[in-house]
## 1
Amino acid sequence: MAVGTVNGRVVAISGSDDNAIRMWDLATGRPYGDGLTGPEKGAESIAIGHFGSRAIVVSGNWDGTIWTWSL
């Protein structure tokens, strides 16, 4: 799990056993945006940050890959 800011909202990013990566709006406790399709074997670690003005999520995965999403 990771916590960061997307479009001015504080969000948590979580991975789960169903290989999905989801964002949660911490002010409301509700899902924020669409879920991100994850790697087949799931995420081992997740980070959120900014690349220039874009929010990004990076995951290190059980299959040895690294995935990046622009939010």
## 2
Amino acid sequence: MFTTASGEEVFIIDGHVHNWDGRKINQKNVHGEQFINCFYAYHSFLSPKEKLWTREKFERYGADQLYRDLFVDGYDDMAIFQPTYLTDFYVDGFNTTEQNALLKAQHPNRFIVNGAFDPRDEEAGLAKFEELVATHKLKGVKLYTAEWKGASRGYKLSDPWTEKYLALAEKLGVRNIHVHKGPTILPLDRDAFDVADVDIAATNFQGLNFIIEHCGLPRLDDFCWTATQETNVYGGLAVALPFIRKQPKYFAHVISQLLMWLGPDKLLYGSDYGIWTPDWLIEDFMAFELPADIGAETGAVLDLEAKKKILGLNAARLYGVDIAAQKRLLRADEVVAVAA
């Protein structure tokens, strides 16, 4: 938890974390190597020098390191696992629901586990998805529209089979649909992450919340125009947030546009761990102030109340987290840990 200089506590829900295995032993082919190479390039480009990891650690940091980075050295109170299966690239998958669930079993009050579906599984995958929802009591899924599957190099949210899966998600109470619509990752295709299909899905499924991860970057304008007209479209700040240190003017532009178009109630913090760690991201975000000229031009306000919404309150609302009750549970966990 982050505490301000005045002593006010800010409850933080990290909306975008992973526990991946990018090691050579798990790479199925050259594409698995390309994928983790690209992740490491993002890490190396946007991380502060003192936060750079070795390639070996980056490929497989593991559960203990993850817990320490998020909840001990970092300021996260809770975190949402967003799976990325990539079974065409990795032998055991890159980061699956089942793998993430093992950590939730160890720390049930810290994690929310999201699932996934692939509409290209068509009829055969519907029952499997329903079973996944029941097993893990899912409230959300993460979709990678550019993920490869056999000869297919992606799908759209507007495809007929995707709509069947979204209808089933809505029926099962899986209301939070996180969709990677951001920078491409080698060898995936850039255009398969285009945001053009978001408004169709959002219009057709008013009972679902579409959290567009990475805010559509580098298609910020397209995303903002869509998100302002669709009341159930939200923006995830993973990937946008790390620019706060390396390119603060660019970050100021991005966050001001998002605040102007969407407002602070529709933005969710995400560290994208383990590409970046939440310690420096949250410290920099809490210290960040919009330049006066940008604030005057856009009317955007990034005060403490807005930051509290972005860092935790919005995700708590979407996932039904009672923050006061959650604080009590976490305090009880700390007492048990000390006693042990």
## 3
Amino acid sequence: MKITLAFLAAILVPVGLMGGWYLWGQFAMFKPDDPYIWIRTGHFLILCALISAAFVLVLGIPAYLLLRWRKAVRWWSTIASGFVLGAVPVAVFSWPLRFSQGASATVDGVPTLVNGAPTLAGWLQYLESVAFFGACGAAAATTFWLIARSPNHSSKRTRVPRAA
């Protein structure tokens, strides 16, 4: 039951982080009394929940089972796994050289892609987004660890007494 609760919390933490980030942008872009802010945010939260659940089910549970099988479930291995599981899929699917032949793009007037080649600003934007999703994965993994860990056991390996 504790593990199930930990996985559910691991789904909800990135949803909260992404929802807060999105809501911040909504209030920065639109007037605070715009009633559609909450409608757009609600739809965005549903999408985030579906994606987060897919990440946890497809990547998180197998990663946990692998760590448990290897007897390597520690705070640092859990958080590192969460970061990698959050960052790598986003890094792969948003790779800027994938479909950019001859394309150009700008963000806030700053060129990020010129004739299919990412600029320094484009690479920094790419790394920032990958790091953000990695941080969401690390936050989910931290939450998972805090809920799933046993309060009576330390994160260090204990020696098994040898028979004399």
